[in-house]
């Protein structure tokens, strides 16, 4: 009986026609050279590579205009190069009005920073301060400036102060914190501190001790426990706001205590007998007033109720850490803070008690007016959403049409809806900030917002962001969380500070195409984005081949009869009506050796891809796992697959998707292994054994 052996699919095809040996930077610069007549910048020689990001969908290159090597403020040409080494998305935020000027500053950098601090009357603890030289033309005249960014204890905010590098004059000063919502600012805190029970009051430390923890040689990462709202008490209990399920000046009760969940706090820091909410992705800091310390303690059990200030600290750590682990470890997208060595900082008690929260400069601040913002995972993850947007774009976040507000609302809703606590027929199914808002304090927001782009844009970034979030959540409800989240994050990484909602939609769909999503899934993006009012361009036909394959000759002769590989390919075009053919044709005979298989998709146009097929003699038993000894079931599967086999030694099973991306690895050490695939998106997958030739195919429903 013939054995068909296919090697582990490990890489996306990285060669494509003439671009085979070029780097993404070379491909992007070649594209710039060919298309510079259509670009805003007048010279590709003055473009500096500002940043490059490798993601699941390819490389995104960010080029900034320069004059004499000095970057031009808020300019960027963003070019995405797919895994097939093709330019698939471009966003041009260059400045056509820049002229050459003298770039030698008359004011020292330190002096410019002092001028900026005096201007905003900065005082107290400086957790962020920087000063960088730029060429600037936002007021009609090209100037040399210092862009200073400052976060001090006072005034509240992350301040950007632009100082003329020749005269020392203030050109612009503004708070660039991205704030939670349009609630009334600086209102009196609606809580009585007398109601703070603090029955298990933790020990706190001062700011000056922060670095002692960071530098402690014997610090260890350990798991702790904590009590949190996941995501909020109303969603857990199926209740609406009111009665015992109301803020009541931060008082707890039996119902609210019962709505808590006991969770593991992963990788918190233990040093000198003290536990601190500091991990590889996130850490607590004391940035703004009220100063309540870091809630360190001598036990790893952080079990509090909402009447204790420590509860918000724990709630923040858990949700931020869980979300960042999901992105990095489940989705496989490398994404951490641009600041503080990649660790996100958060202060659970900020804004001097006002009802507001913010993201800025790698730091999250949560206010305490009304319902404490850090009690609601929606607020926590919304603010994280701004951070994700900031890091994905290397600091070029856009608020055009409220894009980043919509991103924050989507990221909060994506998590909450994944918990399945509300039915689609219930109003709360669509609520964003269902505990913090939708009450007497403020009306909250929704991902069931009845408005379209661009006719219904209001000019309010918080209101308009709901258009973007609503559109994404409709897609989410059709194709699922992980596919939508991946495309959202990868697409957002192709945008810059001038991107509007429509261009973000085009980028998100392009990310799905470049990641090899099934055409039916790509069509969902097209349909729902079009229904929102975004003008979606036609899709150029693409076809994705499987990775290189190895097969054995047919039993009884020295040749191999070619099988049907078209089912392993994926064609994407508008209408999803392309047909795929194969060369050499199915049933052809191939001798031993390496052969090129070409798959061609044909619609209104045609596109091809290739992969190598190695025909080998029957392989020795040391080289492969005999499939006759392995049973994989059920097929198709929903939650779990079971691998049953007669394994002599411990094996490692590597699972790949249709286009060769490694999805997960499983250690096999017993005859029957249950493998949880619940988190995998629907599709076809292949399992290969590390170091051996052999494959298993299964389908996830």
UniProtKB/TrEMBL annotation:
PANTHER family: BACILLOLYSIN. Keywords: Hydrolase, Metal-binding, Metalloprotease, Protease, Signal, Zinc. It holds the Pfam family Por_Secre_tail. This is Por secretion system C-terminal sorting domain-containing protein. Residues 1-20 form the signal peptide. InterPro entries: FTP_domain (IPR011096), Peptidase_M4_domain (IPR013856), Secre_tail (IPR026444), Zinc_Metalloprotease_M4 (IPR050728). Residues 268-388 form the Peptidase M4 domain. It comes from Aquimarina litoralis. Residues 62-90 form the FTP domain. Residues 632-695 form the Secretion system C-terminal sorting domain.
């Amino acid at each position: 009986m013939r054995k068909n052996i296919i090697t582990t699919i490990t890489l996306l095809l990285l060669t494509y026609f003439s671009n085979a040996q070029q780097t993404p930077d070379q491909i992007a610069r070649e594209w710039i050279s060919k298309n510079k007549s259509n670009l805003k910048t007048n010279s590709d020689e003055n473009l500096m590579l500002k940043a490059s990001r490798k993601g699941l969908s390819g490389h995104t290159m960010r080029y900034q205009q320069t004059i004499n090597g000095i970057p031009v403020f808020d300019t960027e040409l963003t070019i995405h190069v797919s895994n097939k080494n093709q330019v698939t998305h471009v966003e041009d935020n260059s400045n056509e009005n820049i002229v050459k000027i003298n770039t030698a500053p008359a004011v020292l950098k330190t002096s410019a920073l002092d001028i900026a601090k005096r201007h905003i009357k900065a005082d107290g603890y400086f957790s962020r301060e920087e000063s960088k030289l730029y060429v600037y033309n936002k007021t009609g005249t090209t100037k040399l400036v210092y862009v200073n960014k400052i976060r001090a204890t006072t005034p509240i905010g992350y301040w950007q102060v632009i100082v003329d590098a020749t005269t020392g004059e203030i050109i612009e000063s503004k708070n660039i914190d991205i704030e939670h919502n349009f609630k009334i600012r600086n209102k009196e805190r609606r809580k009585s501190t007398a109601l703070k029970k603090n029955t298990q009051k933790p020990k706190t430390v001062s700011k000056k001790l922060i670095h002692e923890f960071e530098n402690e040689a014997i610090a260890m990462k350990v798991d702790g426990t904590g009590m949190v709202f996941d995501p909020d008490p109303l969603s857990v209990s199926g209740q609406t706001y009111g009665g015992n399920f109301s803020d009541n000046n931060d008082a707890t009760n039996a119902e609210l205590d019962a709505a808590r969940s006991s969770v593991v706090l992963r990788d918190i820091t233990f040093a000198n007998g003290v536990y601190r909410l500091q991990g590889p992705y996130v850490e607590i800091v004391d940035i703004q007033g009220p100063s309540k310390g870091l809630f360190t303690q001598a036990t790893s059990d952080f079990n509090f109720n909402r009447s204790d200030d420590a509860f918000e600290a724990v709630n923040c750590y858990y949700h931020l850490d869980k979300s960042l682990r999901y992105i990095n470890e489940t989705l496989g997208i490398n994404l951490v803070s641009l600041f503080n060595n990649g660790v996100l900082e958060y202060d659970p008690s900020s804004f001097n008690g006002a009802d507001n929260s913010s993201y800025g400069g790698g730091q999250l601040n949560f206010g305490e007016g009304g319902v404490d913002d850090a009690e609601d995972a929606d607020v926590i993850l919304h603010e994280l959403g701004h951070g994700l947007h900031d890091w994905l774009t290397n600091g070029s976040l856009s608020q055009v049409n409220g894009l980043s507000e919509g991103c924050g609302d989507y990221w909060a809703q994506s998590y909450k809806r994944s918990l399945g606590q509300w039915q689609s027929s219930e109003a709360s199914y669509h609520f964003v900030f269902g505990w913090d808002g939708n009450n007497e304090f403020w009306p909250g927001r929704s991902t069931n917002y009845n408005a379209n782009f661009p006719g219904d844009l209001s000019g309010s970034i918080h209101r308009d962001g709901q258009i973007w979030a609503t559109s994404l959540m409709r897609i989410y409800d059709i194709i699922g969380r992980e596919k939508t989240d991946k495309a959202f994050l990868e697409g957002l990484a192709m945008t810059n500070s001038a991107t509007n909602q429509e261009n973000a939609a085009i980028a998100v769909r392009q990310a799905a195409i470049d990641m090899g999503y099934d055409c039916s899934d790509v069509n969902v993006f097209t349909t729902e984005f079009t229904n929102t009012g975004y003008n979606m361009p036609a899709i150029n036909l693409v076809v994705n081949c499987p990775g290189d394959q190895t097969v054995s000759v047919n039993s009884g002769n020295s040749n191999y009869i070619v099988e049907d590989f078209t089912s392993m390919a994926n064609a994407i075009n508008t209408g999803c009506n392309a047909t795929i053919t194969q060369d050499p044709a199915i049933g052809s005979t191939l001798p031993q050796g390496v052969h090129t298989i070409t798959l061609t998709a044909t619609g209104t146009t045609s596109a091809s891809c290739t992969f190598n097929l190695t025909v080998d003699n029957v392989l020795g038993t040391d080289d492969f796992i005999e499939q006759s000894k392995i049973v994989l079931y059920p097929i198709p599967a929903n939650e779990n697959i079971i691998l049953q086999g007669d394994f002599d030694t411990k094996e490692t099973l590597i699972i790949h998707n249709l286009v060769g991306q490694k999805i997960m690895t499983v250690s096999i050490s017993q005859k029957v292994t249950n493998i949880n695939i619940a988190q995998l998106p629907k599709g076809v997958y292949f399992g290969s054994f590390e170091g051996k030739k052999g494959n298993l195919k299964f389908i996830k429903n």
